[in-house]
Design brief:
- The complex is a heterodimer of chains A (about 325) and B (about 290).
- Chain A has one domain.
- Helices cover about 80% and strands about 0% of the residues of chain A.
- Chain A has 15 helices and 2 strands.
- A two-stranded antiparallel sheet of chain A has the order 1-2.
- In chain A, helix 2 packs parallel to helix 6, helix 4 packs antiparallel against helix 9 and helix 12 packs across helix 13.
- Chain B has about 290 residues and is mainly α.
- Chain B has a single domain, classed as ABC transporter involved in vitamin B12 uptake, BtuC.
- In chain B, about 75% of the residues lie in helices and about 5% in strands.
- Chain B contains 12 helices and 2 strands.
- In chain B, strands 1-2 form a two-stranded antiparallel sheet.
- Chain B is globular and about 60 Å long.
- The chains are: A mainly alpha (about 325), B mainly alpha (about 290).
- At the A-B interface, helix 5, helix 12 and helix 14 of A face helix 5, helix 10 and helix 12 of B.
């Protein structure tokens, strides 16, 4: 029964999104929701490795930007292919990067992995800065197609694409969370040595985990150049993206697939409201403060607090 | 060509000495205490801003103000560790939450500095900045030479402190066997607190040296994250002499790349070396296999 309810929910959200593009006429809503959904995909991606497997990734910005620059490269090489080409190719590229990094560093302790991911982000940034073909340090202007079939404006199309990506990420994350793979990942998180001794194929599972993380990050980044219309390395590789990707699951809760979804809705909404009403610098400060506040006061995140609350109430009723 | 090469190597040595000062605190905190203080470069940047303020308002020499603020940074470090201990280490959540905590702290420091001082580059005034010492064809700018000498003295002092004094040896002990230290009747938490304080205190001087070498803005610290972790890991996790030599290696490598390939490639050098080291020799160049 539960499975059905989940799939019905996915379909309902998708249809609601489609209907929304027909009803809403203020383009701001699409930009705002796009930002929240992008945050959600990154949070989900980060959580697959950080939450399920217990390996902290500081290089989220690197994977995201690798996805965005795959789009830029394709745009230049193929003379403006449809967005969907990039959405398919970028995760393959980023998944391979994730796999490669996993091979290099996952035999080591978690801390080294965290630092290595940061290293990869900076190396990728240096490569892109020096790569004139995709604009180098100066950046790359992105002309978006003026017309798109079935949709009134391009941002509505982008909104639909990121919505589908988000739903896809949720499905993948839920599958990984509840399947045998997820149990193996949780075993690695809790005690890697014990898991290895019990016959859990730890290296293989960790590689699956990094690859999926990289692919989803890349997928989040693929439509980004179309959304922002001007791509340059410093802001695309921004630390803010990495902090956001970590903050979302930390706020929502890292144990299940629900956590990042809740976290992204909470954090994303706060950010959009603050950016519009106060300033974007303050917005950055809020991310940091909310992140530190949650990990010190509510390390289990919102879903964890809710679970404790529910358990307590159930016990009282019994 | 030869002169260019020698100049690049010497510049690299001077730069590396400075890197050692930045990595020194992390070598103690990460290498000895196993605390992944990713915010260390952010504390260095705070040190730079302190030197900048003292220099602009009271015309203090940056290094002097770095020394004056050593105790303040020490107390800051002690406070940071207490908080970290109470929230994460005691409950055994240091792996995931602790990392994210320091990441968040780094971010908050950076944003606060941006809010107060903006993203303009700041620099300091001192008589030796801008002058160069010439030895034949070799040019030694004082703005590199002074930090190098200061950093070398600082590294030497920390080395002597950790190997000769009672508390220094206690810090070594806590990194080797926490339980044994407890059985000897010492409190590992107090020792770690002291060590963390020293680690952050070195950031006061390192920050002063940084602002002598180059103008700074709040996000400069990010570039140093990779460098300092690369240096600490290359140097064999907590070995002070290893840290110093690893810093020289990174400095020389970056200087050579900047001279012969292009300055925009230099940031990738430290990270590249780090990735190769992690993949090939995880215990570091100067570490013991184990």
């Amino acid at each position: 029964m539960k499975l059905n309810r989940f799939w019905v929910g996915i379909v309902v959200v998708f249809l609601a999104g489609l209907a929304f593009t027909k009803i809403a006429d203020n383009e701001f809503y699409f930009y705002a929701i796009y930002a929240v959904l992008q945050l959600m995909v990154m949070g989900i991606a980060w959580n697959i490795l950080g939450g399920f497997t217990g390996y902290v990734n500081f290089g989220a910005g690197g994977f995201f930007a690798a996805g965005a620059y795959t789009t830029v490269f394709l745009h230049k090489a193929l003379d403006g292919p449809p967005l969907l080409v990039a959405v398919v190719v970028a995760p393959i590229v980023c998944g391979l990067i994730g796999l490669g990094i996993g091979y290099l560093t996952l035999r080591l302790r978690g801390v080294y992995f965290a630092i290595a991911t940061l290293a990869v982000a900076i190396i990728l940034e240096t490569l892109v800065i020096n790569w004139e073909y995709v604009g180098g340090a100066g950046g790359y202007y992105f002309l978006i197609p003026e017309e798109i079939p079935f949709f009134d404006s391009y941002v509505e199309w982008l909104f639909t694409v990121i919505l589908v990506i988000t739903l896809f990420a949720i499905v993948v994350s839920r599958y990984l969370n509840s399947s045998r793979i997820g149990q193996g990942l949780a075993a690695i998180r809790d005690d890697e040595l014990a898991a290895e001794c019990m016959g859990v194929p730890t290296l293989k599972l960790k590689l699956i985990s990094t690859t999926v993380m990289g692919a989803l990050m890349g997928m989040a980044g693929a439509p980004f150049p179309y959304f922002i219309t001007f791509v340059e390395p410093v802001s695309t590789f921004s630390l803010l993206i990495a902090v956001n990707a970590i903050a979302v699951p930390m706020i929502g809760g890292t144990m299940t697939w629900v956590g990042p979804v809740v976290g992204a809705i909470v954090l994303g909404s706060i950010q959009e409201i603050v950016t519009v009403s106060i300033s974007s610098e303050l917005n950055m400060l809020i991310v940091g403060v909310v992140l530190v506040g949650f990990i010190t006061l509510a390390p289990q995140g919102i879903t964890g607090v809710y679970r404790d609350f529910r358990d307590k109430r159930r016990r009282r009723n019994e | 060509m030869f002169e260019l090469f020698v100049n690049a190597v010497v510049a690299g040595v001077l730069l590396g000495g400075f890197y050692a000062a930045v990595a020194l605190g992390l070598s103690i905190v990460f290498g000895r205490l196993d605390i992944v203080n990713i915010a260390h470069p952010a504390f260095v940047i705070i040190g730079s801003y302190v030197a900048f303020i003292m220099n602009e308002r009271y015309m203090f020499d940056p290094i002097l103000s770095g020394l004056i603020f050593l105790p303040v940074f020490f107390l800051l470090g002690v406070g940071m560790y207490r908080f970290y201990y109470v929230c994460f280490e005691r409950t055994g959540q240091e792996s995931l939450s602790g990392l994210a905590y320091f990441f968040g702290i780094m971010f908050i420091i950076e944003v606060l500095l941006i809010l107060y001082y903006g993203v303009d580059y700041r620099n300091v005034q001192a008589p030796y900045i801008g002058e160069t010492l010439f030895l034949g064809f070799l040019g030694l700018p004082y703005r590199m030479l002074v930090p190098f000498i200061t950093a070398t003295i600082l590294t030497g002092l920390v080395y002597l402190y950790l190997s000769k004094t009672f508390l220094g040896r206690a810090i070594l002990a806590v990194s080797q066997d926490r339980l044994a230290l407890q059985l000897m009747g010492a409190d590992p938490v107090k020792v770690k607190q002291w060590a963390f304080g020293i680690g952050i205190a070195t950031a006061a001087v390192a920050g002063a040296l940084l602002i002598i070498i180059q103008p700074i803005e709040p996000s400069v610290g990010r570039l140093y994250i990779g460098r300092v972790f690369a240096i600490v890991i290359l140097g064999g996790m907590g070995s002070i002499s290893g840290t110093f030599f690893a810093a020289l290696i990174i400095g020389i490598a970056e200087s050579l790349v900047a001279t012969f390939i292009g300055p925009s490639w230099a940031p990738a050098v430290a990270f590249g070396l780090l990735l190769v080291t992690l993949a090939v020799r995880p215990q570091g160049l100067f570490g013991r296999a184990g």
